[in-house]
Design a protein that fits this description.
The protein has two helices and no strands. The protein has 78 residues and is mainly α. The chain has a domain of 42 residues. It is elongated. The model has no long low-confidence stretch (mean pLDDT 87).
Length: 78
Amino acid sequence: MRLWLKDSERKPDPAPVKTDDRLAIIVGLAAWVVALVVVLVIAQPFNGNAILGWTCVVGIALGIAGFFYTAARHSRTD
């Protein structure tokens, strides 16, 4: 088994796949919103642990920032 190939033996790199990452970010944002609702409705009244709610809020904020970053990057490549 060889661990490396000469440049003349290498196959060409495949072309990059064009994807739309915005859909994945939207699904993640929806999951964070559902988690926040669950924490606020079910979990929060029974234990005073506010870290769960803030975790969901930070996840939503990072998802929104990521969506705008990805949308801007997507519009530059088109």
